[in-house]
Amino acid sequence: MPTARNRSLTRLLVAFSALLLPGLALASVGANHLDLTTTWVGYTAIIIFVIAYGLVMTEEFTHLRKSKPVVLAAGIIWILIALFYTTHHGDSKAVGEAVRHNILEFAELFLFLLAAMTYINAMEERNVFEALRVWLVRSGYGYRKLFWITGFLAFFISPVADNLTTALLMCAVVMAVGAESRRFVALGCINIVVAANAGGAFSPFGDITTLMVWQKGVIDFQTFFLLFLPSLVNYVVPAYFMYRAVPDETPPPQEEDVHMKRGARRIVLLFLATITTAVCVHNFLHLPPVLGMMTGLAYLKIFGYYLGRTGELATVKAGAVEDTMPFDIFNKIARAEWDTLLFFYGVVLCVGGLGFIGYLGLVSELAYVDLGATAANTLVGILSAIVDNIPVMFAVLTMNPDMSQGQWLLVTLTAGVGGSLLSIGSAAGVALMGQTRGIYTFFEHLRWTKYIALGYFASILTHLIVNFWTFSIPASGG
């Protein structure tokens, strides 16, 4: 599972290919910033960035963790910028302020994700997800009914548990019940990828991109749910066409029994309480959501102490020797996806550096002024099918184009669901290709891309019609 996650954020090279075109050196980056787009610093930064992402994209073959090249690239880019400012501008105070701003943005997202990952790991260790999987396996439903059940569960679980975790859970169900039908497994996985990505688009907790938009303060928490109907359309349209190809059969019955460990249900409730705390401190007290998440992490830490003091023990077998260990919250923190978190640091600093140089302002001018916001935001989603949506969305947030609330909702929708167009377009798709070992493949997914694309454009049209009034409302801020 970690390997699948580590391969899921490796597609950013195309995002800034336009930066290399001639004639892109006319951007102004503000009164306090030098325009470095035509200097050796700008060109060198682009080359370093491209090399770093080339290494990221070959991670599967080189086994070089994706965080290593981008973290190194981020440091070199900012050092070069600072050197140029020191030698040509007299000082580098503006550079230092920009770096601190980027680190602050990363720190808030890092701590937020760390708390969320810790809760997910704790629920996984308490067998919450495994119990759900076994219940579905033993249900006795036919393939067609399971197709819809797993799809809708993925759609409604991903807004809370994130789309990757949800996809992996539902894929385990599909593979367990569809052992006798490769076609059901392939269609079920495509269905799950589309559903999980669509479900994650209408919640701040469903995807890192929606979390970034919420934490930036551009869209209020409750406003995200205006995307529910467009997200539902995005899932249901391709699912309708795929459903007709699902075998109308019933899988053989299976007997398997898994029980949740003590405290599992209370941890789920604590996670919901943590989300509530994060929403309340942000909406009513105007504090960063990360404060609520870290407060909620303390709920889990104290509950873990209670489990330990009341004799909760987990049996661990080491060879022929049995040992016991208490519930330890720090074990759950240690199991967070540290490579992904550090990769995210590299992305934030690299994109921030390119923005400081002046490239993002130029791309913003070309996309959002020349093309128009609706066309640009639609293309963001298509780009997300090739390039990972996290750096694409961070680039949009860094550009901060002057858009209405409706347009910010549109780019949030397209960045979230655009990755469904290709199997490599989202963390969920990449993970499931690894989990199914040749059953759900790139070309199997590509066979249904025309229907997924139909759902993509239908969801955009639905948003333009249903939420038309939001296009006259200014964004909350940022």
TrEMBL record:
GO terms for cellular component: membrane. It is a multi-pass membrane protein. The keyword Cell membrane does not apply. Keywords: Antiport, Ion transport, Membrane, Signal, Sodium, Sodium transport, Transmembrane, Transmembrane helix, Transport. It comes from the Bacteria. Pfam families: CitMHS (PF03600). InterPro entries: Cit_transptr-like_dom, NhaD-like. Its main location: membrane. Residues 46-416 form the Citrate transporter-like domain. Coiled coil: none annotated. GO terms for molecular function: antiporter activity. It is found in: Membrane. Residues 1-27 form the signal peptide. One of its GO terms (biological process) is sodium ion transport. The chain crosses the membrane at residues 37-58, 70-87, 141-157, 184-205, 225-246, 267-285, 342-362, 374-396, 408-431, 451-471. Belongs to the NhaD Na(+)/H(+) (TC 2.A.62) antiporter family. This is Sodium:proton antiporter.
